[in-house]
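@channel anyone free to eyeball this complex?
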Amino acid sequence: MTPRARKTAVPDRPIAQPGRAADASPDAPATSPVRPPVTRKAPKDGSAGTAKDHERHLLHQMLRIRHFEERCVELYSASAIRGFLHLGIGEEACAVGLVEALSPEDAVVSTYREHGHALARGISMRSVMAELEGKLEGTCRGRGGSMHIFDAATRFFGGNAIVGGGLPLAVGLALADQLQDRRRVTACIFGDGAVAEGEFHESMNLAALWHLPVLFCCENNLYAMGTALARAQSETDLSLKASSYRVPAWAVDGMDVLAVDAAARHAASAVRDGGGPHFLELRTYRYRAHSMYDPDLYRDKAEIERWRARDPIPALTEALSAAGALGEEERERMEEEVAAEIEDAVAFAEAGTLEDVAELGRFVTSERGPEGTPCLP
Amino acid sequence: MTPRARKTAVPDRPIAQPGRAADASPDAPATSPVRPPVTRKAPKDGSAGTAKDHERHLLHQMLRIRHFEERCVELYSASAIRGFLHLGIGEEACAVGLVEALSPEDAVVSTYREHGHALARGISMRSVMAELEGKLEGTCRGRGGSMHIFDAATRFFGGNAIVGGGLPLAVGLALADQLQDRRRVTACIFGDGAVAEGEFHESMNLAALWHLPVLFCCENNLYAMGTALARAQSETDLSLKASSYRVPAWAVDGMDVLAVDAAARHAASAVRDGGGPHFLELRTYRYRAHSMYDPDLYRDKAEIERWRARDPIPALTEALSAAGALGEEERERMEEEVAAEIEDAVAFAEAGTLEDVAELGRFVTSERGPEGTPCLP
Amino acid sequence: MTYREAMRAAIREALNRDERVFLMGEDVGRYGGCYAVSLGLLEEFGPERIRDTPMSESAFVGAGIGAALGGMRPIVEIMTVNFSFLALDQIVNNAATLLYMSGGQFSVPLVIRMTTGAGRQLAAQHSHSLEGWYTHIPGLRILAPATLEDARGMLWPALCDPDPVLIFENGILYNMEGELSDNPSGVDITSAAIRRAGEDVTVIAYGGSVRAALAAADTLAGDGISAEVIDLRSLRPLDDEAIFASVGRTHRAVVVDEGWRSGSLSAEVSARITEHAFYDLDAPVARVCSAEVPMPYAKHLEDAALPQAADVAAAVHVLGS
Amino acid sequence: MTYREAMRAAIREALNRDERVFLMGEDVGRYGGCYAVSLGLLEEFGPERIRDTPMSESAFVGAGIGAALGGMRPIVEIMTVNFSFLALDQIVNNAATLLYMSGGQFSVPLVIRMTTGAGRQLAAQHSHSLEGWYTHIPGLRILAPATLEDARGMLWPALCDPDPVLIFENGILYNMEGELSDNPSGVDITSAAIRRAGEDVTVIAYGGSVRAALAAADTLAGDGISAEVIDLRSLRPLDDEAIFASVGRTHRAVVVDEGWRSGSLSAEVSARITEHAFYDLDAPVARVCSAEVPMPYAKHLEDAALPQAADVAAAVHVLGS
Ligand SMILES: Cc1ncc(C[n+]2csc(CCOP(=O)(O)OP(=O)(O)O)c2C)c(N)n1
Ligand SMILES: Cc1ncc(C[n+]2csc(CCOP(=O)(O)OP(=O)(O)O)c2C)c(N)n1
Ligand SMILES: [Mg+2]
Ligand SMILES: [Mg+2]
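replying in thread with the prediction:
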């Protein structure tokens, strides 16, 4: 099964042409997103329950992330969290819609703006918060902080803070799956800014050339720090760019969790079924500044307001209420549950310990070979 | 005149769609090249003479390059030339057609396979040969060798041996022209292999985004060392790739010097007239191995033969003869002239001197500021 | 005035003084610079001269080289040294090499500025101190302004240099406050400076670690040890004479370097002192460097990994015995 | 058998021994490897395990890291160290850092092989010796096989290492001939080796410069000076014990390094010897390195730039006085 042989399985052209109707420019938030041609499969594979159960679950996940991050702001002001802190407030539909569509055996490679992906992936809020507070009980013993969450149990490969640096890793993880004949998807998340990096180009080509099971997910929030997409890209239609590598690509309304969920399920199963890499452009927006250091001088308040009007959380809440699938009481219970989880996580983090300074040098190199390392007799 | 303002001058889509008719795959050499929609302007700007004069000049240039490089092979065998030696035998139509289309004030940024470009550009054969033999009289005092020919007088910026490394330089040269309001073109030559490098992607985007006067010329000889294009690119239509940056792009029959000449003139004047970067894919073939070290195991002899059948030199010779524009006597005189020039260059190189070892440390840094360096009072 | 403002004043002066100068890099314009160094300059000089780039380190650094070849005098900002890896091919294979390789034909009058150093809990991918690495490359001049005066004064002479100059700004210095003279432009960029005179030991530092060295000297003074503190300022070429002269007087030396110990600039300084002044030394040259670990996020671990004033003082005490 | 063939035999053995091993890089397959190291392996193992890549150094090195994380044992070939700049972000920020940054969760069992060194008239962009640079990075193991035995034996233990290992093959060694024992697989990759015993001076070399060191020792023997030649073999971590033990006996040391002098590995070795054995030394540690110039093409200039046996002998003579 050579790469060439595999390659013949790829259709000559992207199976869907990138959406051109959706307009996610700063001046006109997307209102008519392009959706992939699939019917929505609501329940998570294997789980029972109704479509509405699933939608409530998505809402719950978005709320967990939103309130977690709001709490992070307070903790940053209180100096409990330090360094760079990047929040995905406004982008929760992307994190939840995408990550919920994956299976446990899949892998996630994310960026420094990854709290949402980590929480959606099922990493405990306690260990994420402890990491942000630099505690030994954190996902990475407090060595990584906000930008570097890693979790072997859920195959969460960072937390990568070099823009574009995660893409080659994802290609390699997928290569390992291909070589070992495992039907797994590696979801690789990055921002619109990363598309300008050479590593984007090299990784897209390599994945397409070798027909690797990577799901590329570009969270296009229209800015890379203070640089608007149109000042960074000669071609601002990122799905079109992706399709120039012969990778099937769609633009999706990243403010609609159901749209993201549907697109991600469709794309992930195409990848899993041997369809080679796929690309999703999730059109979204961050409500807050790039990081806690950012004075946010480069955007118009009105622009932010227009996007706030499309906030994915009230949107789904209202839709569920209107459909009679979410009572006021249930909504309140959900909020309370989330608040309690966050308080618990904060308490856990505060009660956490600091790694002994004597351990500073541990894990520069491995303490022993991982299970199955080939070793001399 | 901000980049944004300039950008509005770019048409929404490439002004010409990349040629899909031309088929330059290894199995089917291009026979019906796509030509840009221009009438051939034959005489070089400013020169008198007829179209046929110009064609004879192109033939003469191709012969100079071909025989120069054939002589290099002998000199390599005789150990007068060492290191890596990359020959463009078979690709002369690209070098000549492209470089002849430029004006003296333009710049050329080339690769390690640049003898042809250097000679076509008007760098004396003597100094090129002396460089190849490591002599002080060479273009770079013998410090560069075959891979690193530089010449300030003709604005020839290498001779760059890191694949892809010349592209950002070309972008910067063009930026300097744009900032200084000079109507000059920077021709940036690279191979099909370079297209996979991140620097290709970054440079194309930057040039297009800033609407810079770069003429990107990809000499697509179907191989990067032993790697066939189809094993390197998920999308083998390189012009199509280029157009994904909103850069107007064409494929041109690189075995037909008149086609290259016409395409290059058209593209160069579009660039010069403020049309932003343009991209030419010159579909060509190298008859010899990648370098003198290459055992050439990865190609079919028959494939090489098929391309030899389209050798640009006999093709133009025959066309001129058939049109009565090149008599047998004239052809012989041309060959003799070329042979004499080569013998003279070899003699010059052999008689050349070696740089004094005491000068080894010169030019690591400048001896004095170049003319016009801003300097403290 | 802060170090940040001193740097900004230097950029402003250069832009005013020579129209071939422009600033280019990620977010230098609308955002105001990732560390706010260029805040306000876009409004003052416009988008042609304060030029935001896409996230394409290799291309925009290479474009800086090309623009320098084309007659401009670019100042390229790489947000931090950590991202300069992505442009390293351009810096080493092109900027540092073109003049030599072309037999003296093409000089590259380019200045590249970048932030370096740790101490702000930015963890393993944003806390490198790799200026020492760059000092290995012939053809580059490497500067490390540690004072407001140098932040203000080094840029112009760097731009006057016909060859590529890299300026490393340690991130912890940006908020440092101080006074500047009225006519500050232009300092010498070839020599080291004695930041505190002393007799018993020479403490050699640069950039972010000068403060630790000075603090250690204070402590040591209390212990009756008079430490001379040298700020290297130029990391390539090194001002050997200043170093040797001081060590010739004190007979003892400690080198402080925020880089990882193995293969750091401190090793080169140590080796040179030994080569030159072996018979003058009363003790081996000591080094105080960062622990050889990717920088951890947690504050107590990061502090433990970085060379502190107490470590410098302790190293001096060991030598003194 | 040549060094090249020894390396090939090592790769073949690894591929046979563990099905998770594969070789990936530019032209390793159909072309047979840019220095013909992998010639014939494609036919033997097929294109999945002898994997030609596009010219995308960052992506295929990063893919090697990812594949290692995914349970494979990749051998990534970068044609030469000069091109490794393009992959440096992946090597430093990912391969070397992931284990630490993830708090010990993700190790990267990856081997990267690359050619290094000058001496073949390949000029400024193809002649770097940057292995010393890589020794600055915590988390990497750096090996430099200088003999057929090491070319044959270092790969398997490198693959056994759960962490990233870089193997630097000096290009001038590929054609070196020699004999190998029948059962060669696996050598110790942590220690230096004494390649020639001696009493008066320790000459420390590695990779391509071991030959110059041995040749110098021959010459010196004629002058009545008995030189011990140490081949470092492992450049990170350094085998300090072996170095200190030898210098403890000879009281004099010369370090030979094909890297540019300033900031080279030789500086680190020199600094360590001084730190450890200062009072044992009869003379300052000397260094013989490459001239600090981008490598010129012309043979006589390249020879002048590189450390030669005569330079080593001369350095020893200076110490001896
Ligand atoms: C290679 C590199 N260059 C620069 C930076 C600094 N930086 C961090 S985030 C960022 C913007 C990234 O934008 P995007 O990819 O759109 O992601 P977003 O932050 O919008 O989620 C920049 C410039 C970096 N981390 N890595
Ligand atoms: C960055 C880099 N990687 C690898 C090489 C080694 N190398 C030299 S030429 C070459 C092939 C380039 O192919 P292409 O761009 O098609 O140009 P061609 O040689 O066919 O003219 C390779 C792999 C290099 N010089 N630079
Ligand atoms: Mg963004
Ligand atoms: Mg080619």
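from a first look: The two ends of chain B are 32 Å apart (CA to CA).
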